[in-house]
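seq/struct pair 1
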Amino acid sequence: MEVSIINTVFNLEGHIISAVPFGNGHINDTFRLFNQEASKPDYLLQRINHLIFTEVEQMMLNIRRVTEHVNQRLPGSTLELIGTRVGGNFHRDADGNYWRIYRFRKELQSIDVAETPAQIYEGAKAFGRFLFHLADFPAHTLHPTIPHFHDVIFRLQQLKEAVHRDSQGRVKAALAEIDYSFQITEIMERIQKAGKRGGNSPPSDP
């Protein structure tokens, strides 16, 4: 996506002068956008893989609603989606590609593989805080954008079928991991069934 189009389409502060590939993602294509004005923010541009996320409009509406809900309770604590100048959550170009933009947070660092227990602790704490601020979010209003994506019972059945077929001859090398997955089947199914019944009152502030 050309920089000139980015400046025209999205509701950005300042003026974007360049874009470079960013991060190690393997699903979407991500680019850091550099602002001409030092006092204005940089941004992250992503080309959404619409072969995987086929319901782009619904997915982006989910993201908008969840991030705004959390940011209202704890400003600046999660992603900030930048809309288009016409009020949309994404832009579709002439080639059929879908693009979205987030504000770039220079003070934050994304770690692909934790190197210390402290990093694991901080990641878990941040995730817990994120969930806490979603405790009163009406989850039933979100759109399912990938069918059965978080359906543990469905995924376990898929695993059983894959193990039985062993079409790539990999089962023997992964027996420990497969056995562990089946050992905790009851726990995972219990959690999913409890979620479908509805949760209890929100937890206390972590």
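seq/struct pair 2
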Amino acid sequence: MPDMLSPREIVFVRAQRVARMATADAHGRPFAVPVCFVYLNGCLYTPVDEKPKSGRRLRRLRNIEANPQVALVLDRYEDDWERLAWVLIRGRASLVTDGGEKAQVTAALRRKYEQYHSMALEQLPLIRVNPEQTASWGAV
């Protein structure tokens, strides 16, 4: 899959530790949550990990099932406003079902986040976002 992001945006996105993922339910009611992620092969992936959650079927998963259009914002705030920056990725979300893809992404997540070394990510849902539109601003 070709990259929708520019080389500078890719560097910026990969350097970030957290993104904010916005989904909407079938009625268009928005929901946003911070997520851990990796950017790999032109897609952004975020796991449903073992951190405590309220309920078994997460709202973001229900929303993606009803409306797969999502948006992710990755931003950097600093008191030096010359360094402010953000990247917005809009795209279509789906769950990863291919075992090879899931293994590759899980390994990348574990390289990025030490906390994932002890989690059974292979047994948990993994969301893929295929970018359809991107925008950026500031010192990306």
